[in-house]
Each structure stands twice: as structure tokens, then as C-alpha cells.
Amino acid sequence: ILPFLIIGMSILHLIFLHETGSNNPTGLNSNIDKIPFHPYFSYKDLLGFMIMLSLLSTMALFSPNLLGDPENFTPANPLMTPPHIKPEWYFLFAYAILRSIPNKLGGVLALLFSILILFTFPMLHTSKQRTMTFRPITQTLFWLMTANLIILTWIGGQPVEEPFIMIGQISSVIYFMLLTTLIPLAGMAENKSL
């Protein structure tokens, strides 16, 4: 279901992008510099789509197991559970947040909120500027968030033992703190410095 969701979100992104236009580094409106969408961008999008489709088709038809998990080739044994079961790489950050809370219900709620909080992020945007070019505090928080997501993804693939449990708990707190308080406060602070 995830590939179809990604395709749907990509189409939605292209519709919004072609309807309103992309942002420029200054965040100002630049209607003067626009060129017609067709044929310039239509052919460019079509070429990119064809290249990606041919790469995907080549990989799927000639080497379908290239990105598969080696555990899939182990014969099934009903008497032995695999020592470490983990989700796909794109769910590992949420899985690390799920594992960081010892309570089952609390872990499931944290997992749910870790995804739902991303949908509230546009409403938490408090800055008057759309771009991060002239916002050094937000740039720093962005790179901190990126590093934190990489750490959570790495922790999600590790076994449940110390020190991975503690690192996952600290990274989970930082994840929620960044998205709910630090980034909106940085936007308000940078608004005052304008």
C-alpha cells in the first residue's frame, strides 16, 4: 500500500506545484519570470517519469530480489522464532519510538503521534518567511531533526538492549520536543528579529 500512497502523494504534490508554483530563496512572488508550463515542463516531467519507470522495470524484471531481505530465503521453521524481527527501513524511526516506551498502550500512542504530528506541522509553522535561507536558528534545528531521524532509524534496526534503549528514549523525546516546541518557538523568535 505504501507505493500507491507515495504515487498518490507525488501526484498531489505535482498538482499543487504546478498550480501555485515553487518557492524561490527570497520567498517573494515572482510572477514576472514565469514561462509556460507546456511544452517546457511537460516534456521534462515526461522524460523523468520515463527514466524512473524504465529503471524500476529493469530492476523488477531482471533482479527482483536485489533489495529483498536475506531472511526471506531462510526456510520456515515453526519451532524457532527469528532473533530480531524489524520492519522495513522507512518505518524504523517510528518503530524505535514504539520500542522506547515500555508500556504497550503508551508505545502505540507514541507511534501514532509520531506520524500524526507531521500532519500538524504546517499549522505549527509560525515564521513570517517561507524559506529557511535567512533563518539560522531554524536551519540548525532542521539539521538537528535530520540527525535525530537518522539516529532513530538506526536504533530501530538494533536489538532491544542497552545502550540502544536509552538512546531511543532520548531521541524520541528530542523528536517530539523539536516538532512541538522548539521549531515553533524558533519561528517566533526569528519573527521578532526581523
TrEMBL record:
<keyword id="KW-0249">Electron transport</keyword>
<protein>
    <recommendedName>
        <fullName>Cytochrome b</fullName>
    </recommendedName>
</protein>
<keyword id="KW-0999">Mitochondrion inner membrane</keyword>
<keyword id="KW-0830">Ubiquinone</keyword>
<comment type="function">
    <text>Component of the ubiquinol-cytochrome c reductase complex (complex III or cytochrome b-c1 complex) that is part of the mitochondrial respiratory chain. The b-c1 complex mediates electron transfer from ubiquinol to cytochrome c. Contributes to the generation of a proton gradient across the mitochondrial membrane that is then used for ATP synthesis.</text>
</comment>
<dbReference type="InterPro" id="IPR036150">
    <property type="entry name" value="Cyt_b/b6_C_sf"/>
</dbReference>
<dbReference type="InterPro" id="IPR005797">
    <property type="entry name" value="Cyt_b/b6_N"/>
</dbReference>
<keyword id="KW-0679">Respiratory chain</keyword>
<dbReference type="GO" id="GO:0005743">
    <property type="term" value="C:mitochondrial inner membrane"/>
</dbReference>
<feature type="signal peptide">
    <location>
        <begin position="1"/>
        <end position="17"/>
    </location>
</feature>
<dbReference type="InterPro" id="IPR027387">
    <property type="entry name" value="Cytb/b6-like_sf"/>
</dbReference>
<feature type="transmembrane region" description="Helical">
    <location>
        <begin position="46"/>
        <end position="67"/>
    </location>
</feature>
<dbReference type="InterPro" id="IPR005798">
    <property type="entry name" value="Cyt_b/b6_C"/>
</dbReference>
<dbReference type="GO" id="GO:0016491">
    <property type="term" value="F:oxidoreductase activity"/>
</dbReference>
<dbReference type="GO" id="GO:0008121">
    <property type="term" value="F:quinol-cytochrome-c reductase activity"/>
</dbReference>
<dbReference type="Pfam" id="PF00032">
    <property type="entry name" value="Cytochrom_B_C"/>
</dbReference>
<keyword id="KW-0813">Transport</keyword>
<keyword id="KW-0479">Metal-binding</keyword>
<keyword id="KW-0349">Heme</keyword>
<dbReference type="GO" id="GO:0046872">
    <property type="term" value="F:metal ion binding"/>
</dbReference>
<keyword id="KW-0472">Membrane</keyword>
<feature type="transmembrane region" description="Helical">
    <location>
        <begin position="136"/>
        <end position="157"/>
    </location>
</feature>
<feature type="transmembrane region" description="Helical">
    <location>
        <begin position="163"/>
        <end position="186"/>
    </location>
</feature>
<keyword id="KW-0496">Mitochondrion</keyword>
<keyword id="KW-0408">Iron</keyword>
<dbReference type="GO" id="GO:0006122">
    <property type="term" value="P:mitochondrial electron transport, ubiquinol to cytochrome c"/>
</dbReference>
<keyword id="KW-0812">Transmembrane</keyword>
<dbReference type="Pfam" id="PF13631">
    <property type="entry name" value="Cytochrom_B_N_2"/>
</dbReference>
<keyword id="KW-1133">Transmembrane helix</keyword>
<keyword id="KW-0732">Signal</keyword>
<feature type="transmembrane region" description="Helical">
    <location>
        <begin position="105"/>
        <end position="124"/>
    </location>
</feature>
<feature type="domain" description="Cytochrome b/b6 C-terminal region profile">
    <location>
        <begin position="27"/>
        <end position="194"/>
    </location>
</feature>
<dbReference type="InterPro" id="IPR048260">
    <property type="entry name" value="Cytochrome_b_C_euk/bac"/>
</dbReference>
